[in-house]
């Protein structure tokens, strides 16, 4: 068996599925997956760059993995998005969710959902590296250091 360093490829190799058009995924399904993609990126950065007790790792992660922070990140990267990426973001942002996070206003929540949908889209299209570049750009624009 061919070993891969690409998580999505490895998942598909180990658990084969028929091909599926990315356009058939609902924006909220993309956001569901993108939430995990975003969180693993942030958790990786926090763990590798700061270390320390898990309690502290969680606190630092939670400062970035919330609707308010994600909305700011999304706003700061807008000018870098391609038309295709903007479409994925807008579909997520405009999706009608059945609930809103208890500690977020609706505007931030929708923009965060757009960011998550974008990251889910990039992941499923094999472009996780692009998500990392967009996150790096947003961090630079907002002067966020980890």
How would you describe the overall organization of this protein?
By secondary structure, the protein is an all-alpha fold. The protein contains seven helices and no strands. The chain has helices at residues 7-14, 27-49, 54-62, 67-77, 83-94, 106-124, 128-142. The longest helix has 23 residues, at 27-49. It is globular and about 40 Å long. The model has no long low-confidence stretch (mean pLDDT 92).
Descriptive key words:
146 residues; mainly alpha; globular
State the gist of this model:
The chain is mostly helical and 146 residues long.
Number of strands: 0
Tell me the number of helical segments per DSSP (H or I, 4 or more residues long). 7
What's the helical proportion of residues? 55-70%
Detail the poorly predicted runs. none
Globular, elongated, flat, extended or rod-shaped: what is the shape?
globular
List the helices and strands in order.
HHHHHHH
Radius of gyration: 16 Å
End-to-end distance? 37 Å
Strand content: under 5%
**Average pLDDT, to the nearest integer?**
92
Derived from helix and strand composition plus strand pairing, the structural class reads mainly alpha
Q: How does the major sheet shape up?
A: none
Topology diagram in text:
Blueprint: H1 7-14, H2 27-49, H3 54-62, H4 67-77, H5 83-94, H6 106-124, H7 128-142
Helix pairs in contact: 2-3, 2-5, 2-6, 4-6, 4-7, 5-6, 6-7
């Amino acid at each position: 068996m061919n070993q891969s360093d690409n998580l999505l490829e490895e998942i598909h190799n180990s658990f084969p599925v028929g091909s599926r058009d990315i356009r058939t995924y609902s924006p909220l399904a993309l956001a569901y997956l993108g939430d995990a993609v975003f969180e693993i990126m942030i958790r990786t950065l926090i763990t590798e760059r700061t270390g320390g007790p898990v309690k502290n790792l969680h606190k630092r992660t939670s400062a970035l993995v919330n609707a308010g922070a994600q909305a700011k990140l999304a706003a700061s990267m807008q000018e870098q998005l391609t038309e295709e990426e903007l479409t994925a973001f807008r579909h997520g942002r405009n999706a009608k969710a059945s609930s809103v996070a208890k500690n977020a206003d609706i505007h931030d929540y929708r923009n965060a959902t757009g960011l998550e949908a974008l990251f889910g889209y990039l992941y499923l299209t094999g472009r996780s590296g692009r998500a990392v570049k967009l996150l790096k750009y947003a961090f630079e624009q907002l002067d966020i250091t980890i």
